[in-house]
Amino acid sequence: MFPAWFKLKIFFVWVGLLTAVEFVSWLSYSWPNCRPWLTYATWLVVLIISCYRLHYGIYAVFAELVVGSQGYILAAALSGFTISLRLGLFLILFLAAVFDVLRRRKIELLKSFYWKWFVALVCWIIIGVGIAIIYGNSPSNIFYDVNGYLFIGLLFPITQGLREREQLKQLITILFAGVTVLAVQTLFIVFVFSHPNLFQYYLTDIYRWIRDFRIGEITQQSNGFYRVFFQSHLYVVFCLLLAEIHLMKRWQLWSALTAAIAVLLLFLSYSRSFWLATIVILGALWGYQWIISVQHRKHVWLAILSTGLGFILAYGLILAVVNIPIGGAGSGVSASSLLTDRTDNPLNDVGGGSRLALLKPLLQKNLEHPFTGMGFGTTVTYATKDLRALAANPNGLYTTFAFEWGYLDLWLKLGLIGLVTYLLLLCIIVIRTVSQAKQITEDTFAEMALYSMGFGTVAVMIIHVLTPYLNHPLGLGWLILACVVSDIYAKNR
């Protein structure tokens, strides 16, 4: 049932570990005084295993990305600052990599094809900080705006520790373990909030845990359906692409089930950006494989049919989960409204209206200094109907430095030249990974990994239009992983 590269024992071990982390996070919510000590204990364990084997720490970092969303699933306060679990893991892995360099006398980053492009991007980020200071932007705004880019620094420890193909197979198995935990958690939350009478004593605590620890968002739609969106759902796209490519090479029940679960999670996210990216990228992948693999066209059709059937089954499962009459009636969500609630005019909902209201003032701000930008922490004021913004500003005007128009945000902070530099890096990642995959004929896993990274990067680029990821550790982590996969399978390595 499972492909040869899939490490079943590692999968179950990490499912158990990540489930334990979720449980520990819940305990830290229930007993706040324990939260810092649980966080310290986690950091200590990761520090020990990272110094012993650097790639073990890399596994922990990517596992946290898949289940941690914003990185605050655990956190600790130090000198008045809240240090997230993710930031602590970043520092630990960086220190462990420095130790590895001193021990082995080698800097693997310098062997990477992409390191100069990342240096160029970092230079523009530094320039963006300098420009922000010149324009007098708020220091706190600058810090909170630029801190997501710190994750670029993990290119150093990840290239230092992730060098072998066997390590890559283990890491991707761990990503699947993380998505499995994410799937169970998502379905459980949908079921709980669809049956409030059955779980009435726990709803408030579960909601606050998810919200306050920045794990995700739970919002009730107009049709009564509860949307459960985790930022980490981004990594579901990778699992979907890997399963699709496997289906187009050799049909296996494992691949079909993985594709169905991935489609289920992406649908439950109720994110139009994710839906659009999934449709576009699957169409592009199927079309590309149809063109280049004449002998496998039957498998392409089989993948399309399997995915279509998986979507139908996932759709039915969602309806069953939210409507099953346990502990009273379910949500009463109809089959048609489950889809049309998010596909009808998107400007009618608060999120779509706010994005449209932001567009004009954000464009005007960009045109003030189009080539150099205005640096990090630059704010824009616009009218919004978002209830959270109205609670703080009854006049309806909202000022922010974080914008959901992803590329306009990059343009404003990095300038046109910085934006073009970033886009060139993205295009190079896509072209190189896809070209490498096309040249591989005998290593099925390598072909799947490279195609998934290449087409997945395109998916991230599409999602970033309205749901920013390229300035966030989740998106940057994807790009770093894509570069490392490409380097591992480069001919000169």
Order of helices and strands: HHHEEHHHHHHEEHHHHHHEHEHHH
Strand order of the largest sheet: 1-2
Kindly estimate the percentage of residues that lie in beta strands according to DSSP: under 5%
Q: Helix share of residues?
A: 55-70%
Q: Could you say which structural class the secondary elements and strand pairing correspond to?
A: mainly alpha
Approximate shape: globular
How many angstroms does the end-to-end distance come to?
32 Å
* Secondary structure: number of strands: 6
What does this structure look like?
The chain has 493 residues and is mainly α. Among the domains are: 176 residues, no CATH class; 133 residues, no CATH class. The protein contains 19 helices and 6 strands. The strands form 3 sheets. Strands 1-2 form a two-stranded antiparallel ribbon. A hairpin with a 5-residue loop joins strand 3 and strand 4.
Task: Please sum up the structure shown.
By secondary structure, the chain is mostly helical.
SSE blueprint:
Layout: H1 8-30, H2 35-52, H3 54-68, E1 75-78, E2 81-84, H4 85-104, H5 115-134, H6 139-146, H7 155-161, H8 165-194, H9 203-212, E3 217-220, E4 226-229, H10 234-249, H11 253-268, H12 272-292, H13 297-323, H14 335-343, H15 350-368, E5 380-383, H16 387-392, E6 397-400, H17 406-439, H18 444-463, H19 473-488
Antiparallel strand pairs: 1-2, 3-4, 5-6
Helix pairs in contact: 1-8, 2-3, 2-4, 3-4, 3-8, 4-7, 5-17, 8-11, 8-13, 10-11, 10-12, 10-13, 10-18, 11-13, 12-13, 12-18, 15-17, 17-18, 17-19, 18-19
